[in-house]
From TrEMBL:
The name this protein goes by in its record: Putative chitin binding peritrophin-a domain protein
Organism: Aedes albopictus (Asian tiger mosquito)
TM helices/strands, residue ranges: none
Gene Ontology CC annotation, any one: extracellular region
Alphabetized Pfam families for the sequence: CBM_14
Single GO molecular function: chitin binding
Entry keyword Disulfide bond: no
């Protein structure tokens, strides 16, 4: 019986080494590999376009440099094709809009930090600026993004999380996470998931379709999604009241100072 112990320890070490070696960081995709990706058009780009592709499958109508309406492409011609003046809907995808889930697109950052890709497990996003395009990181072939480690893990160890959208538009959780979630937009037979993240210490509620913040105590706490805002927590009648407050423009909330600087 005791002779087995060294073997089990050896096996345990082997397993832990293997596990460690199977988690690797991804590499940032450079500009030339991202050139083939879809970039949403902007009505305010100064070119006077009458419409732009706001996603692979929808158009924004422009008036006076502003987007005034969002029009999804019909199921028969589901793909928006950008033109020099106006867009058209066709059956062939524009650059970066493959019909498979394998396209590599930057996302418009809804939060700071690391976010999974909503449709491609092999890549993930690093968001350094809100509402700007993400930096796209790609895992080696046969690896997928793991949200816990924020690294790439071999498909041989476990499987990637896939977002399963319903038949109608709505919110779904990202795997077992209650902090990360996706908005599935179903329009004319085309389903597009968009990934989101609740700030740290909050969870997404499918009842209210919003992030619910849990106060750690009384005081002010930075909003990890957007440090130019913070949560104010105080006790009223024995339970916490939480409100989201915004810092003056150009400042971020500093938790140790307890003010925006
Ligand atoms: C960008 O990535 C592509 C594909 O991985 C590679 O062939 C190319 O040499 C890279 N370019 C630069 C400037 O790193
Ligand atoms: C991600 O990694 C963690 C920590 O190793 C593990 O517990 C979890 O199961 C992994 N997630 C998935 C979806 O495999
Ligand atoms: C405080 O709690 C008591 C007992 O639950 C309730 O009667 C009262 O209305 C509450 N006061 C406020 C301001 O919510
Ligand atoms: C908060 O302020 C302290 C004291 O000025 C400073 O050392 C620290 O770097 C600041 N933290 C952030 C996140 O700005």
């Amino acid at each position: 019986m005791h002779r087995r112990l060294p073997f089990l320890i050896f096996l345990y070490n082997l397993l832990s080494i293997t596990q460690a070696q199977l988690d690797v960081p991804g590499v940032r995709l450079n500009r030339s590999s991202l050139l083939r990706t879809f970039t949403p058009g902007s009505c305010s780009d100064g070119t006077g376009r009458t419409s732009v592709c706001s996603s692979c499958s929808s158009q924004s109508l422009c008036f006076g440099g502003n987007a005034i309406a969002e029009v999804p492409c019909p199921g028969s011609n589901p793909y928006c094709n950008p033109g020099s003046v106006e867009t058209s809907c066709s059956s062939s995808p524009a650059a970066g809009c493959g019909s498979t889930g394998s396209q590599v697109n930057a996302i418009v950052c809804p939060a700071l930090g690391v976010l999974p890709d909503p449709s491609n497990c092999n890549v993930y996003h690093v968001c350094r600026n809100l509402q700007q395009n993400s930096d796209v990181y790609q895992c080696p072939p046969g690896y997928h993004f793991n949200l816990t480690t924020k690294w790439c893990r071999s498909d041989q160890v476990d499987q990637c999380v896939r977002i399963t959208c319903g038949t109608t538009s709505g919110f779904v959780y990202y795997g077992n996470s209650r902090q990360y979630f996706a908005l599935c937009v179903v329009a004319n037979g085309v389903t597009t998931p968009y990934i989101f993240k609740c700030p740290d210490r909050s969870t997404f509620s499918v009842n209210t379709n919003s992030c619910v913040y849990q106060c750690a105590g009384q005081g002010n706490f930075v909003n990890s999604n957007d440090p130019s805002s913070f949560y104010q927590c105080y006790l009223a009648n024995g339970s916490y009241v939480v409100t989201l407050q915004r810092c003056p423009t150009g400042t971020v909330f500093n938790e140790s100072l307890q003010y925006c600087s």
